[in-house]
Protein: Thiamin pyrophosphokinase thiamin-binding domain-containing protein
Organism: Laodelphax striatellus
Amino acid sequence: MICNASDFACYEWNPLDPVAEDRLHIGKEYAIMILNRPIKVPQLLMIDLWNNAKLRITVDRGTQRWLTFCEKLKSDRGLDVTLNPDIVSGDLDSVDPTSLEHVKSLGCEIRETIDQNNTDFRKAIGVIMDRNIELNSVLVVAEHSGRLDHIISNLNVHFTTDALLSDSNIQMYHLAGDSLTWLLKPGHHVIRIPKRLRDRSAWCSLLPVGSACNVTSSGLKYNMENSRLEMGGLVSSSNTYDSEKESVELLVDQKIIWSMGLGFNDD
């Protein structure tokens, strides 16, 4: 949400529901996307996110990841449910043909995207935009694990799609098993932090993977005063919160990645 400011844009973020803090607060009109990584989001949260999405898309072998999740749901909780995607997209070079035929037989749309100059993730954003439906956000589900080139490539998509999504007032979030990540634009950001995360000193970070960024902060344990964050220099990793402050406030002069632990899997 953008608030009024005379010199720069001001953004307010409430990443977790202020009442039910084990639920995300990403808007009611959202699309959900599954990439090709094992799904480690808590099962009941994942079902809730899937069922309430306006559009559901699995990307290439992410289709099998989703079907595997559904099978595990059945064995772990005895829930025999059909949770089919609306769309499968990608160049379809890694999805199992049997899985593809299965979801196709259930009415899922198959969108083959051949262009090798963009990743399947980036092309899937285009597929969503082609639907021309009203959305607040896109929630991408993928673990930050495995191949480093895939991790960096996924972060890069936050930058390469920013203008496209911003034109439609859509925010993209990246959900892993126990973290939420998104792109901050230049400006003043206020991020509301639930008390349970502040009390347990949950981690957070600012990652200058796009370009050097000057940051001034309050509400963090290790605050910055017009500090220059850049690869090859200072990176604000493994930071946490000032337990007395309800919000983190950031003033940033370039696009930068914010990532935070959600505390779902804490012992």
Notes: The first strand starts at residue 2 and ends at 3. The chain has seven helices and 16 strands. The chain has two domains: 26-177, 179-266. Residues 179-266 form a domain with the Jelly Rolls fold (CATH 2.60.120.320).
